[in-house]
Amino acid sequence: MDKNSIWGLVIIGAILIGYTYLTKPSDEEVKAMKTRDSIASVERLRNETLEAARIEGLKKQYEEQKSDTVALKKAYGAFAGAVQQKEEVITLENKLVKLSINTLGGRVSNVELKEYQTHDAEKLMLWGEKNSKFGLTFYADNKAMYSQDLFFTPVNAVKTVDATTAKQVVSMRLLAGQGKYIEYRYTLEPDSYKVGFDINVVGMQNVIQRDLTFNWAADIPSQEKGRKFENQYTALYYKFLGDDIESLSASGEDEEPISTKVKWIGFKQQFFSSVLIADDSFKGIELKSTDMEETSPILKNFSAAISLPYQGSQLENYPMNFYFGPNKFKTLREYGKDYDGVDIELHKLVDLGWMIFGWVNRYFVIPIFNFLEGFISNYGIIILILTIIIKLILAPLTYKSYMSTAKMKVLKPEIDAINEKIPKDKAMERQQATMALYKKAGVNPMGGCLPMLVQFPFLIALFRFFPSSIELRQKSFLWAEDLSSYDSIVDLGFHIPMYGDHISLFCLLMAITNLIYTRMNGQMQSSQQMPGMQTMMYLMPVMFLFWFNSYASGLSYYYFIATLFTVVQTWAIRKYLVDDDKVLAMLEANKKKPAKKKSNFQKRLEEAAKQKGYKPPKK
Protein backbone atom coordinates (compact mmCIF):
# COMPACT_ATOMS: atom_id res chain seq x y z
CA MET A 1 0.00 0.00 0.00
CA ASP A 2 1.58 3.36 -0.97
CA LYS A 3 1.60 6.56 0.97
CA ASN A 4 -1.37 8.10 -0.81
CA SER A 5 -3.59 5.12 -0.03
CA ILE A 6 -2.78 5.27 3.63
CA TRP A 7 -3.63 8.97 3.82
CA GLY A 8 -6.91 8.30 2.02
CA LEU A 9 -7.99 5.72 4.58
CA VAL A 10 -7.07 8.02 7.45
CA ILE A 11 -9.10 10.90 5.98
CA ILE A 12 -12.18 8.64 5.39
CA GLY A 13 -12.00 7.34 8.97
CA ALA A 14 -11.69 10.88 10.31
CA ILE A 15 -14.76 11.91 8.26
CA LEU A 16 -16.83 8.97 9.61
CA ILE A 17 -15.78 9.72 13.18
CA GLY A 18 -16.58 13.39 12.71
CA TYR A 19 -19.97 12.68 11.13
CA THR A 20 -20.85 10.31 13.92
CA TYR A 21 -19.91 12.88 16.52
CA LEU A 22 -21.72 15.73 14.77
CA THR A 23 -24.97 13.72 14.23
CA LYS A 24 -25.06 12.28 17.70
CA PRO A 25 -28.56 13.02 19.25
CA SER A 26 -28.81 15.19 22.28
CA ASP A 27 -30.10 13.95 25.59
CA GLU A 28 -33.52 15.50 24.85
CA GLU A 29 -33.65 13.76 21.47
CA VAL A 30 -32.64 10.46 23.02
CA LYS A 31 -35.43 10.84 25.60
CA ALA A 32 -37.97 11.64 22.88
CA MET A 33 -36.89 8.62 20.86
CA LYS A 34 -37.37 6.39 23.86
CA THR A 35 -40.87 7.84 24.40
CA ARG A 36 -41.86 7.17 20.77
CA ASP A 37 -40.61 3.64 21.02
CA SER A 38 -42.65 3.10 24.17
CA ILE A 39 -45.85 4.44 22.47
CA ALA A 40 -45.27 2.25 19.47
CA SER A 41 -44.80 -0.72 21.70
CA VAL A 42 -48.04 0.01 23.55
CA GLU A 43 -49.96 0.53 20.27
CA ARG A 44 -48.64 -2.71 18.93
CA LEU A 45 -49.58 -4.50 22.11
CA ARG A 46 -53.12 -3.01 21.99
CA ASN A 47 -53.59 -4.09 18.40
CA GLU A 48 -52.42 -7.54 19.24
CA THR A 49 -54.85 -7.63 22.19
CA LEU A 50 -57.79 -6.45 20.08
CA GLU A 51 -57.03 -9.01 17.43
CA ALA A 52 -56.83 -11.70 20.04
CA ALA A 53 -60.15 -10.52 21.49
CA ARG A 54 -61.73 -10.48 18.03
CA ILE A 55 -60.58 -13.99 17.37
CA GLU A 56 -61.81 -15.03 20.82
CA GLY A 57 -65.19 -13.36 20.11
CA LEU A 58 -65.52 -15.15 16.82
CA LYS A 59 -64.73 -18.39 18.55
CA LYS A 60 -67.33 -17.62 21.25
CA GLN A 61 -69.94 -16.59 18.66
CA TYR A 62 -69.30 -19.76 16.76
CA GLU A 63 -69.70 -21.79 19.93
CA GLU A 64 -72.96 -19.90 20.76
CA GLN A 65 -74.25 -20.50 17.27
CA LYS A 66 -73.41 -24.12 17.66
CA SER A 67 -75.22 -24.09 21.00
CA ASP A 68 -78.26 -22.19 19.50
CA THR A 69 -78.43 -24.57 16.60
CA VAL A 70 -78.46 -27.48 18.97
CA ALA A 71 -81.18 -25.77 21.07
CA LEU A 72 -83.25 -24.92 18.01
CA LYS A 73 -82.83 -28.42 16.71
CA LYS A 74 -83.94 -29.76 20.05
CA ALA A 75 -86.96 -27.42 20.26
CA TYR A 76 -88.14 -27.40 16.64
CA GLY A 77 -86.67 -30.57 15.19
CA ALA A 78 -86.88 -30.62 11.41
CA PHE A 79 -88.27 -27.06 11.45
CA ALA A 80 -85.26 -25.46 13.21
CA GLY A 81 -84.27 -23.73 9.99
CA ALA A 82 -87.65 -21.96 9.87
CA VAL A 83 -87.13 -20.01 13.09
CA GLN A 84 -84.54 -17.28 12.51
CA GLN A 85 -85.42 -15.65 9.20
CA LYS A 86 -86.34 -12.23 7.88
CA GLU A 87 -90.02 -11.27 7.87
CA GLU A 88 -91.48 -10.33 4.49
CA VAL A 89 -94.96 -9.39 3.23
CA ILE A 90 -96.22 -10.47 -0.18
CA THR A 91 -99.31 -8.83 -1.68
CA LEU A 92 -102.05 -10.34 -3.83
CA GLU A 93 -104.32 -7.72 -5.30
CA ASN A 94 -107.03 -7.14 -7.88
CA LYS A 95 -109.67 -4.43 -8.31
CA LEU A 96 -111.75 -5.74 -5.42
CA VAL A 97 -109.49 -7.12 -2.70
CA LYS A 98 -105.95 -6.76 -1.40
CA LEU A 99 -104.37 -9.55 0.64
CA SER A 100 -101.19 -9.20 2.70
CA ILE A 101 -99.46 -12.56 3.13
CA ASN A 102 -96.72 -12.68 5.76
CA THR A 103 -93.79 -15.08 5.57
CA LEU A 104 -94.08 -15.39 9.36
CA GLY A 105 -96.67 -18.12 9.49
CA GLY A 106 -97.26 -17.92 5.73
CA ARG A 107 -100.60 -16.49 6.69
CA VAL A 108 -103.11 -13.95 5.48
CA SER A 109 -102.41 -11.11 7.89
CA ASN A 110 -104.67 -8.41 6.38
CA VAL A 111 -107.64 -8.35 4.02
CA GLU A 112 -108.71 -5.03 2.52
CA LEU A 113 -111.89 -4.53 0.48
CA LYS A 114 -110.83 -1.80 -1.93
CA GLU A 115 -114.28 -0.59 -3.01
CA TYR A 116 -115.46 0.16 0.53
CA GLN A 117 -114.50 2.32 3.49
CA THR A 118 -115.39 2.43 7.16
CA HIS A 119 -117.91 5.00 8.36
CA ASP A 120 -115.04 7.37 9.20
CA ALA A 121 -113.46 7.04 5.71
CA GLU A 122 -110.67 4.63 6.69
CA LYS A 123 -109.60 1.56 4.72
CA LEU A 124 -111.99 -1.30 5.31
CA MET A 125 -110.07 -4.24 6.74
CA LEU A 126 -111.99 -7.45 7.42
CA TRP A 127 -109.50 -8.26 10.12
CA GLY A 128 -106.12 -7.00 11.25
CA GLU A 129 -102.82 -8.71 11.85
CA LYS A 130 -102.90 -8.18 15.59
CA ASN A 131 -104.82 -10.64 17.75
CA SER A 132 -105.52 -12.99 14.87
CA LYS A 133 -104.59 -16.61 14.25
CA PHE A 134 -104.14 -18.32 10.94
CA GLY A 135 -102.21 -21.57 10.74
CA LEU A 136 -101.72 -25.18 11.64
CA THR A 137 -101.15 -26.95 14.91
CA PHE A 138 -99.51 -30.36 14.57
CA TYR A 139 -97.18 -32.78 16.33
CA ALA A 140 -93.65 -33.43 15.09
CA ASP A 141 -90.99 -35.31 17.06
CA ASN A 142 -93.60 -35.65 19.83
CA LYS A 143 -93.77 -31.88 20.24
CA ALA A 144 -96.61 -29.46 19.45
CA MET A 145 -95.74 -27.14 16.56
CA TYR A 146 -97.48 -23.89 15.62
CA SER A 147 -96.97 -22.83 12.04
CA GLN A 148 -97.80 -19.24 12.89
CA ASP A 149 -94.53 -19.01 14.84
CA LEU A 150 -92.41 -20.32 11.96
CA PHE A 151 -91.17 -18.68 8.79
CA PHE A 152 -92.41 -19.84 5.42
CA THR A 153 -90.42 -19.48 2.24
CA PRO A 154 -92.09 -17.93 -0.83
CA VAL A 155 -91.84 -20.28 -3.81
CA ASN A 156 -92.99 -19.59 -7.37
CA ALA A 157 -94.66 -16.33 -6.43
CA VAL A 158 -96.26 -15.25 -9.68
CA LYS A 159 -96.48 -11.48 -10.02
CA THR A 160 -98.54 -10.00 -12.84
CA VAL A 161 -98.13 -6.54 -14.28
CA ASP A 162 -101.88 -6.17 -14.79
CA ALA A 163 -103.69 -7.90 -11.97
CA THR A 164 -107.02 -7.55 -13.80
CA THR A 165 -106.16 -9.85 -16.69
CA ALA A 166 -104.44 -12.86 -15.11
CA LYS A 167 -104.64 -14.81 -11.90
CA GLN A 168 -101.98 -14.46 -9.25
CA VAL A 169 -100.49 -17.39 -7.38
CA VAL A 170 -98.29 -17.43 -4.28
CA SER A 171 -96.93 -20.60 -2.66
CA MET A 172 -95.62 -20.36 0.89
CA ARG A 173 -93.65 -23.37 2.14
CA LEU A 174 -92.64 -24.36 5.65
CA LEU A 175 -89.50 -26.39 4.96
CA ALA A 176 -88.54 -29.43 7.00
CA GLY A 177 -85.73 -30.82 4.87
CA GLN A 178 -85.12 -31.90 1.32
CA GLY A 179 -88.47 -32.59 -0.34
CA LYS A 180 -90.33 -32.12 2.95
CA TYR A 181 -92.63 -29.16 3.50
CA ILE A 182 -96.06 -27.81 4.37
CA GLU A 183 -97.39 -25.52 1.65
CA TYR A 184 -100.06 -22.82 1.60
CA ARG A 185 -101.02 -22.06 -1.97
CA TYR A 186 -103.03 -18.89 -2.59
CA THR A 187 -104.75 -18.14 -5.91
CA LEU A 188 -106.49 -14.87 -6.74
CA GLU A 189 -108.48 -14.49 -9.94
CA PRO A 190 -109.04 -11.07 -11.55
CA ASP A 191 -112.17 -9.19 -10.41
CA SER A 192 -112.99 -11.84 -7.82
CA TYR A 193 -113.79 -11.89 -4.12
CA LYS A 194 -112.84 -15.56 -3.95
CA VAL A 195 -109.31 -16.68 -3.01
CA GLY A 196 -108.19 -20.24 -3.61
CA PHE A 197 -106.47 -21.70 -0.54
CA ASP A 198 -104.82 -25.13 -0.66
CA ILE A 199 -102.87 -26.78 2.13
CA ASN A 200 -100.40 -29.38 0.83
CA VAL A 201 -98.37 -31.61 3.14
CA VAL A 202 -95.50 -33.17 1.17
CA GLY A 203 -93.06 -35.85 2.30
CA MET A 204 -93.92 -35.42 5.98
CA GLN A 205 -94.87 -39.02 6.75
CA ASN A 206 -91.82 -39.47 9.02
CA VAL A 207 -92.15 -36.03 10.59
CA ILE A 208 -95.82 -35.49 11.53
CA GLN A 209 -97.35 -38.03 13.91
CA ARG A 210 -101.01 -36.99 14.27
CA ASP A 211 -103.85 -35.15 12.54
CA LEU A 212 -103.40 -31.47 11.88
CA THR A 213 -105.65 -28.69 13.19
CA PHE A 214 -106.22 -25.54 11.19
CA ASN A 215 -106.78 -22.57 13.50
CA TRP A 216 -108.49 -19.45 12.24
CA ALA A 217 -109.36 -16.68 14.68
CA ALA A 218 -109.78 -12.94 14.33
CA ASP A 219 -110.88 -9.82 16.14
CA ILE A 220 -113.79 -8.37 14.20
CA PRO A 221 -113.52 -4.56 14.08
CA SER A 222 -116.43 -2.16 14.09
CA GLN A 223 -116.97 -0.75 10.59
CA GLU A 224 -120.26 1.15 10.99
CA LYS A 225 -121.53 4.19 12.90
CA GLY A 226 -124.07 2.47 15.13
CA ARG A 227 -122.09 -0.05 17.18
CA LYS A 228 -125.06 -1.55 19.07
CA PHE A 229 -127.06 -2.04 15.89
CA GLU A 230 -124.04 -3.42 14.01
CA ASN A 231 -123.29 -5.85 16.83
CA GLN A 232 -126.73 -7.46 16.45
CA TYR A 233 -125.89 -8.43 12.87
CA THR A 234 -122.36 -9.70 13.56
CA ALA A 235 -122.14 -13.43 14.27
CA LEU A 236 -120.28 -16.64 13.44
CA TYR A 237 -122.22 -18.70 10.87
CA TYR A 238 -121.73 -22.23 9.56
CA LYS A 239 -123.53 -24.51 7.12
CA PHE A 240 -123.94 -28.23 7.55
CA LEU A 241 -123.20 -30.26 4.43
CA GLY A 242 -126.46 -30.59 2.51
CA ASP A 243 -128.42 -29.12 5.40
CA ASP A 244 -129.34 -25.95 7.23
CA ILE A 245 -127.30 -22.90 8.20
CA GLU A 246 -126.76 -22.20 11.88
CA SER A 247 -124.99 -19.50 13.88
CA LEU A 248 -123.57 -18.90 17.31
CA SER A 249 -125.30 -16.36 19.52
CA ALA A 250 -124.79 -12.74 18.47
CA SER A 251 -124.55 -11.66 22.10
CA GLY A 252 -122.35 -12.73 24.98
CA GLU A 253 -120.07 -15.74 24.71
CA ASP A 254 -121.00 -18.90 22.85
CA GLU A 255 -119.14 -21.98 21.69
CA GLU A 256 -120.10 -25.10 19.82
CA PRO A 257 -118.24 -28.36 19.15
CA ILE A 258 -119.46 -29.89 15.87
CA SER A 259 -118.84 -33.50 14.90
CA THR A 260 -120.98 -33.64 11.74
CA LYS A 261 -119.83 -32.45 8.33
CA VAL A 262 -119.78 -28.73 7.63
CA LYS A 263 -119.51 -27.07 4.21
CA TRP A 264 -118.41 -23.59 5.25
CA ILE A 265 -117.65 -21.34 8.21
CA GLY A 266 -118.30 -17.60 8.02
CA PHE A 267 -117.11 -14.72 10.16
CA LYS A 268 -120.08 -12.48 9.33
CA GLN A 269 -120.21 -8.75 9.96
CA GLN A 270 -123.27 -6.60 9.28
CA PHE A 271 -122.33 -5.91 5.66
CA PHE A 272 -119.18 -8.00 5.01
CA SER A 273 -118.05 -11.57 5.54
CA SER A 274 -114.96 -13.77 5.57
CA VAL A 275 -116.02 -17.31 4.68
CA LEU A 276 -113.85 -20.44 4.59
CA ILE A 277 -115.36 -22.96 2.15
CA ALA A 278 -114.32 -26.61 1.92
CA ASP A 279 -114.15 -28.25 -1.49
CA ASP A 280 -115.64 -31.33 0.19
CA SER A 281 -116.42 -30.73 3.85
CA PHE A 282 -114.94 -30.09 7.28
CA LYS A 283 -115.42 -32.49 10.16
CA GLY A 284 -114.38 -32.14 13.76
CA ILE A 285 -114.78 -28.42 14.44
CA GLU A 286 -114.78 -26.21 17.51
CA LEU A 287 -116.31 -22.75 17.14
CA LYS A 288 -116.31 -19.88 19.60
CA SER A 289 -117.66 -16.32 19.67
CA THR A 290 -116.86 -13.75 22.36
CA ASP A 291 -118.28 -10.25 22.79
CA MET A 292 -115.90 -7.40 23.51
CA GLU A 293 -116.44 -4.40 25.80
CA GLU A 294 -118.53 -1.55 24.42
CA THR A 295 -115.57 0.83 24.64
CA SER A 296 -113.41 -1.43 22.47
CA PRO A 297 -112.98 -0.81 18.72
CA ILE A 298 -113.46 -4.58 18.37
CA LEU A 299 -116.98 -6.02 18.29
CA LYS A 300 -116.28 -9.71 18.74
CA ASN A 301 -113.61 -12.37 18.56
CA PHE A 302 -114.42 -15.37 16.37
CA SER A 303 -112.40 -18.58 16.33
CA ALA A 304 -112.61 -21.88 14.49
CA ALA A 305 -110.44 -24.95 15.06
CA ILE A 306 -110.81 -27.42 12.19
CA SER A 307 -109.40 -30.95 12.27
CA LEU A 308 -107.59 -32.04 9.09
CA PRO A 309 -107.14 -35.85 9.02
CA TYR A 310 -103.57 -36.89 8.18
CA GLN A 311 -103.06 -40.29 6.55
CA GLY A 312 -99.25 -40.24 6.46
CA SER A 313 -99.05 -40.30 2.64
CA GLN A 314 -96.37 -38.70 0.49
CA LEU A 315 -98.85 -35.98 -0.49
CA GLU A 316 -101.82 -34.82 1.57
CA ASN A 317 -104.03 -32.15 -0.01
CA TYR A 318 -106.71 -30.02 1.66
CA PRO A 319 -108.37 -27.77 -0.97
CA MET A 320 -110.46 -24.82 0.22
CA ASN A 321 -111.55 -21.35 -0.81
CA PHE A 322 -112.04 -18.06 0.96
CA TYR A 323 -114.75 -15.55 0.18
CA PHE A 324 -113.75 -12.05 1.25
CA GLY A 325 -116.50 -9.67 0.23
CA PRO A 326 -119.80 -7.84 0.80
CA ASN A 327 -123.00 -9.39 2.11
CA LYS A 328 -124.85 -8.52 -1.07
CA PHE A 329 -127.59 -10.99 -1.95
CA LYS A 330 -126.92 -11.04 -5.68
CA THR A 331 -123.14 -11.31 -5.24
CA LEU A 332 -123.40 -14.14 -2.72
CA ARG A 333 -125.71 -16.04 -5.07
CA GLU A 334 -123.04 -15.80 -7.78
CA TYR A 335 -120.30 -17.14 -5.50
CA GLY A 336 -122.52 -19.66 -3.72
CA LYS A 337 -121.93 -22.59 -6.08
CA ASP A 338 -119.46 -25.43 -5.56
CA TYR A 339 -117.57 -27.18 -8.34
CA ASP A 340 -120.52 -29.46 -9.01
CA GLY A 341 -122.87 -26.51 -9.37
CA VAL A 342 -124.60 -27.27 -6.06
CA ASP A 343 -125.95 -24.25 -4.22
CA ILE A 344 -124.06 -23.85 -0.93
CA GLU A 345 -126.39 -21.01 0.12
CA LEU A 346 -123.91 -18.25 0.86
CA HIS A 347 -126.76 -15.82 0.21
CA LYS A 348 -128.31 -16.85 3.51
CA LEU A 349 -125.64 -14.77 5.21
CA VAL A 350 -128.00 -11.92 4.32
CA ASP A 351 -130.69 -12.18 6.99
CA LEU A 352 -133.95 -11.81 5.07
CA GLY A 353 -136.14 -13.30 7.76
CA TRP A 354 -137.67 -16.66 8.55
CA MET A 355 -139.82 -18.67 6.13
CA ILE A 356 -142.61 -16.54 4.60
CA PHE A 357 -140.84 -13.28 5.48
CA GLY A 358 -137.72 -14.43 3.67
CA TRP A 359 -139.80 -15.47 0.66
CA VAL A 360 -141.41 -12.04 0.47
CA ASN A 361 -137.98 -10.40 0.47
CA ARG A 362 -136.41 -12.86 -1.94
CA TYR A 363 -139.16 -13.08 -4.55
CA PHE A 364 -140.85 -9.71 -4.23
CA VAL A 365 -138.87 -6.95 -2.49
CA ILE A 366 -135.38 -7.67 -3.83
CA PRO A 367 -136.42 -8.03 -7.51
CA ILE A 368 -138.31 -4.72 -7.36
CA PHE A 369 -135.44 -3.06 -5.50
CA ASN A 370 -132.86 -4.32 -8.01
CA PHE A 371 -135.07 -3.24 -10.94
CA LEU A 372 -135.39 0.29 -9.57
CA GLU A 373 -131.62 0.42 -8.98
CA GLY A 374 -131.12 0.12 -12.72
CA PHE A 375 -132.89 3.44 -13.33
CA ILE A 376 -132.58 5.46 -10.13
CA SER A 377 -129.40 6.27 -8.24
CA ASN A 378 -131.02 7.93 -5.22
CA TYR A 379 -131.90 5.23 -2.70
CA GLY A 380 -134.29 7.47 -0.80
CA ILE A 381 -136.38 7.76 -3.96
CA ILE A 382 -136.11 3.99 -4.49
CA ILE A 383 -137.50 3.36 -1.00
CA LEU A 384 -140.31 5.83 -1.66
CA ILE A 385 -141.32 4.14 -4.93
CA LEU A 386 -141.02 0.67 -3.37
CA THR A 387 -143.28 1.77 -0.54
CA ILE A 388 -145.88 3.18 -2.93
CA ILE A 389 -145.85 -0.01 -5.02
CA ILE A 390 -146.42 -2.16 -1.92
CA LYS A 391 -149.19 0.07 -0.58
CA LEU A 392 -150.98 0.13 -3.96
CA ILE A 393 -150.83 -3.66 -4.20
CA LEU A 394 -152.26 -3.93 -0.70
CA ALA A 395 -154.84 -1.15 -1.25
CA PRO A 396 -157.80 -3.55 -1.82
CA LEU A 397 -157.01 -5.22 1.49
CA THR A 398 -156.77 -1.83 3.18
CA TYR A 399 -160.19 -0.93 1.78
CA LYS A 400 -161.70 -4.22 2.92
CA SER A 401 -160.25 -3.77 6.39
CA TYR A 402 -161.67 -0.25 6.59
CA MET A 403 -165.12 -1.42 5.44
CA SER A 404 -165.15 -4.08 8.15
CA THR A 405 -164.24 -1.46 10.74
CA ALA A 406 -166.90 0.91 9.38
CA LYS A 407 -169.58 -1.77 9.71
CA MET A 408 -168.58 -2.41 13.29
CA LYS A 409 -168.69 1.33 13.93
CA VAL A 410 -172.28 1.85 12.73
CA LEU A 411 -173.39 -1.10 14.83
CA LYS A 412 -171.85 0.44 17.92
CA PRO A 413 -175.14 1.91 19.29
CA GLU A 414 -176.85 -1.50 19.08
CA ILE A 415 -173.87 -3.23 20.67
CA ASP A 416 -173.85 -0.63 23.45
CA ALA A 417 -177.56 -1.34 23.96
CA ILE A 418 -176.83 -5.06 24.32
CA ASN A 419 -174.12 -4.30 26.86
CA GLU A 420 -176.51 -2.16 28.90
CA LYS A 421 -179.26 -4.78 28.80
CA ILE A 422 -177.10 -7.73 29.77
CA PRO A 423 -174.98 -7.40 32.96
CA LYS A 424 -171.22 -7.74 32.90
CA ASP A 425 -171.29 -10.95 34.91
CA LYS A 426 -173.12 -12.64 32.03
CA ALA A 427 -170.29 -12.29 29.54
CA MET A 428 -171.34 -15.37 27.58
CA GLU A 429 -174.86 -14.00 27.09
CA ARG A 430 -173.43 -10.69 25.92
CA GLN A 431 -171.19 -12.45 23.45
CA GLN A 432 -174.03 -14.63 22.18
CA ALA A 433 -176.29 -11.64 21.62
CA THR A 434 -173.52 -9.67 19.93
CA MET A 435 -172.75 -12.54 17.56
CA ALA A 436 -176.44 -12.87 16.73
CA LEU A 437 -176.50 -9.19 15.78
CA TYR A 438 -173.41 -9.58 13.63
CA LYS A 439 -174.93 -12.56 11.86
CA LYS A 440 -178.24 -10.83 11.26
CA ALA A 441 -176.52 -7.70 9.88
CA GLY A 442 -174.12 -9.72 7.73
CA VAL A 443 -170.99 -8.53 9.52
CA ASN A 444 -167.93 -10.68 10.04
CA PRO A 445 -166.16 -9.47 13.20
CA MET A 446 -162.97 -11.04 11.93
CA GLY A 447 -163.28 -9.35 8.54
CA GLY A 448 -160.69 -6.72 9.37
CA CYS A 449 -158.16 -9.23 10.70
CA LEU A 450 -157.53 -11.18 7.51
CA PRO A 451 -156.37 -8.15 5.47
CA MET A 452 -154.07 -7.13 8.32
CA LEU A 453 -152.76 -10.69 8.52
CA VAL A 454 -151.92 -10.63 4.79
CA GLN A 455 -150.09 -7.31 5.18
CA PHE A 456 -148.13 -8.49 8.21
CA PRO A 457 -145.50 -10.53 6.25
CA PHE A 458 -144.61 -7.42 4.23
CA LEU A 459 -144.17 -5.42 7.42
CA ILE A 460 -141.81 -7.96 9.02
CA ALA A 461 -140.00 -8.75 5.74
CA LEU A 462 -139.02 -5.12 5.23
CA PHE A 463 -138.03 -4.90 8.89
CA ARG A 464 -135.41 -7.58 8.06
CA PHE A 465 -134.53 -6.27 4.60
CA PHE A 466 -133.44 -2.69 5.26
CA PRO A 467 -130.89 -3.32 8.05
CA SER A 468 -129.30 -6.10 5.96
CA SER A 469 -129.19 -4.22 2.66
CA ILE A 470 -125.62 -3.18 1.85
CA GLU A 471 -127.03 -1.13 -1.02
CA LEU A 472 -128.11 1.48 1.55
CA ARG A 473 -124.71 1.59 3.25
CA GLN A 474 -123.24 5.12 3.23
CA LYS A 475 -126.00 6.30 0.87
CA SER A 476 -127.40 9.69 1.86
CA PHE A 477 -130.91 11.09 1.55
CA LEU A 478 -132.08 14.48 2.74
CA TRP A 479 -130.53 14.96 6.20
CA ALA A 480 -129.61 11.27 6.61
CA GLU A 481 -125.94 10.77 5.79
CA ASP A 482 -126.18 6.98 5.86
CA LEU A 483 -129.48 5.14 5.31
CA SER A 484 -128.01 2.01 6.90
CA SER A 485 -127.43 3.83 10.21
CA TYR A 486 -129.30 6.32 12.37
CA ASP A 487 -129.95 9.88 11.15
CA SER A 488 -128.93 12.05 14.08
CA ILE A 489 -130.09 15.68 13.88
CA VAL A 490 -129.20 16.45 17.52
CA ASP A 491 -126.42 14.93 19.60
CA LEU A 492 -127.57 15.13 23.20
CA GLY A 493 -124.17 14.81 24.81
CA PHE A 494 -125.56 12.34 27.35
CA HIS A 495 -127.09 8.88 27.17
CA ILE A 496 -130.76 8.11 27.84
CA PRO A 497 -131.35 4.45 28.75
CA MET A 498 -133.01 2.48 25.92
CA TYR A 499 -133.06 5.62 23.77
CA GLY A 500 -129.49 6.70 23.11
CA ASP A 501 -127.49 9.90 22.96
CA HIS A 502 -129.08 11.45 19.86
CA ILE A 503 -132.39 12.28 18.18
CA SER A 504 -133.18 10.56 14.88
CA LEU A 505 -135.59 12.65 12.82
CA PHE A 506 -136.99 9.86 10.63
CA CYS A 507 -137.70 7.86 13.78
CA LEU A 508 -139.45 10.87 15.30
CA LEU A 509 -141.57 11.37 12.16
CA MET A 510 -142.45 7.69 12.15
CA ALA A 511 -143.65 7.90 15.77
CA ILE A 512 -145.76 10.99 15.02
CA THR A 513 -147.49 9.42 12.00
CA ASN A 514 -148.19 6.29 14.05
CA LEU A 515 -149.82 8.42 16.74
CA ILE A 516 -152.02 10.05 14.08
CA TYR A 517 -152.98 6.66 12.64
CA THR A 518 -153.72 5.31 16.13
CA ARG A 519 -155.99 8.34 16.72
CA MET A 520 -157.87 7.66 13.45
CA ASN A 521 -158.33 4.00 14.35
CA GLY A 522 -159.55 4.93 17.82
CA GLN A 523 -162.34 6.95 16.27
CA MET A 524 -163.46 3.89 14.30
CA GLN A 525 -163.76 1.50 17.24
CA SER A 526 -167.15 -0.18 17.48
CA SER A 527 -167.28 -0.73 21.20
CA GLN A 528 -165.49 -0.23 24.40
CA GLN A 529 -162.09 -1.79 24.34
CA MET A 530 -160.60 -4.01 26.98
CA PRO A 531 -159.30 -2.06 29.99
CA GLY A 532 -155.96 -0.47 29.21
CA MET A 533 -156.10 -1.35 25.49
CA GLN A 534 -156.61 2.27 24.40
CA THR A 535 -153.62 3.33 26.49
CA MET A 536 -151.55 0.49 25.02
CA MET A 537 -152.42 1.55 21.48
CA TYR A 538 -151.13 5.06 22.16
CA LEU A 539 -148.11 3.72 24.00
CA MET A 540 -146.90 1.69 21.02
CA PRO A 541 -145.73 4.69 18.90
CA VAL A 542 -143.82 5.98 21.92
CA MET A 543 -142.17 2.57 22.28
CA PHE A 544 -141.28 2.69 18.58
CA LEU A 545 -139.51 5.96 19.29
CA PHE A 546 -137.22 4.15 21.72
CA TRP A 547 -136.82 0.95 19.72
CA PHE A 548 -135.95 2.54 16.39
CA ASN A 549 -133.89 5.54 17.45
CA SER A 550 -130.59 3.70 16.79
CA TYR A 551 -131.85 1.55 13.90
CA ALA A 552 -131.19 2.12 10.22
CA SER A 553 -132.71 5.42 9.10
CA GLY A 554 -133.80 3.70 5.88
CA LEU A 555 -136.09 1.47 7.95
CA SER A 556 -137.56 4.39 9.93
CA TYR A 557 -138.00 6.31 6.67
CA TYR A 558 -139.88 3.39 5.11
CA TYR A 559 -142.22 3.02 8.13
CA PHE A 560 -142.80 6.78 8.14
CA ILE A 561 -143.74 6.81 4.42
CA ALA A 562 -145.82 3.63 4.70
CA THR A 563 -147.79 4.90 7.71
CA LEU A 564 -148.26 8.33 6.13
CA PHE A 565 -149.57 6.67 2.97
CA THR A 566 -151.97 4.57 5.08
CA VAL A 567 -153.22 7.71 6.83
CA VAL A 568 -153.90 9.35 3.47
CA GLN A 569 -155.60 6.18 2.19
CA THR A 570 -157.81 5.98 5.26
CA TRP A 571 -158.77 9.65 4.99
CA ALA A 572 -159.57 9.28 1.27
CA ILE A 573 -161.68 6.16 1.82
CA ARG A 574 -163.58 7.79 4.66
CA LYS A 575 -164.21 11.02 2.72
CA TYR A 576 -164.91 9.76 -0.77
CA LEU A 577 -165.70 6.03 -0.76
CA VAL A 578 -167.46 5.09 2.46
CA ASP A 579 -170.47 6.84 3.98
CA ASP A 580 -171.64 5.74 7.41
CA ASP A 581 -175.33 6.29 6.54
CA LYS A 582 -175.03 4.12 3.44
CA VAL A 583 -173.20 1.43 5.42
CA LEU A 584 -175.96 1.47 8.07
CA ALA A 585 -178.66 1.25 5.39
CA MET A 586 -176.87 -1.73 3.87
CA LEU A 587 -176.73 -3.49 7.24
CA GLU A 588 -180.40 -2.79 7.89
CA ALA A 589 -181.23 -4.33 4.53
CA ASN A 590 -179.20 -7.38 5.47
CA LYS A 591 -181.25 -7.79 8.64
CA LYS A 592 -184.45 -8.15 6.57
CA LYS A 593 -183.00 -10.98 4.50
CA PRO A 594 -183.77 -14.61 5.39
CA ALA A 595 -181.55 -16.01 8.13
CA LYS A 596 -178.48 -17.75 6.92
CA LYS A 597 -177.18 -21.06 8.12
CA LYS A 598 -175.24 -20.76 11.31
CA SER A 599 -171.49 -20.81 10.99
CA ASN A 600 -169.41 -23.46 12.73
CA PHE A 601 -167.99 -20.75 14.97
CA GLN A 602 -171.46 -19.66 16.08
CA LYS A 603 -172.52 -23.25 16.65
CA ARG A 604 -169.50 -23.86 18.90
CA LEU A 605 -170.22 -20.62 20.76
CA GLU A 606 -173.86 -21.59 21.38
CA GLU A 607 -172.84 -25.06 22.48
CA ALA A 608 -170.43 -23.60 25.00
CA ALA A 609 -173.17 -21.29 26.25
CA LYS A 610 -175.62 -24.20 26.69
CA GLN A 611 -173.08 -26.10 28.76
CA LYS A 612 -173.03 -23.11 31.09
CA GLY A 613 -176.83 -23.13 31.36
CA TYR A 614 -177.56 -20.24 29.00
CA LYS A 615 -180.65 -20.50 26.79
CA PRO A 616 -180.75 -18.31 23.67
CA PRO A 617 -183.76 -15.96 23.44
CA LYS A 618 -186.76 -17.10 21.42
CA LYS A 619 -187.26 -15.38 18.09
Beta-strand percentage range: 25-35%
- Characterize the overall form: elongated
Which CATH class of the largest domain applies here? Mainly Beta
Rounded to the nearest angstrom, the distance between the terminal CA atoms is: 189 Å
> How many structural domains can be distinguished in the coordinates?
3
Second rung of CATH, namely the architecture of the largest domain? Distorted Sandwich
Number of strands: 21
| Rg from alpha-carbon coordinates | 43 Å
What this model shows, in words?
- With 619 residues, the protein is α+β, with helices and mostly antiparallel strands.
- It folds into three domains: 57 residues; 266 residues, Beta-galactosidase, Chain A, domain 5 (Distorted Sandwich), CATH 2.70.98; 162 residues, no CATH class.
- 42% of the residues lie in helices and 25% in strands.
- The strands form four sheets. A nine-stranded antiparallel sheet has the order 7-8-9-10-19-16-15-12-13, with helices on one face. It has a six-stranded antiparallel sheet with strand order 6-5-11-18-17-14, with no helix packed on it.
- Strand 20 and strand 21 form a beta hairpin.
- The termini are far apart.
- About 1% of the residues have low confidence.
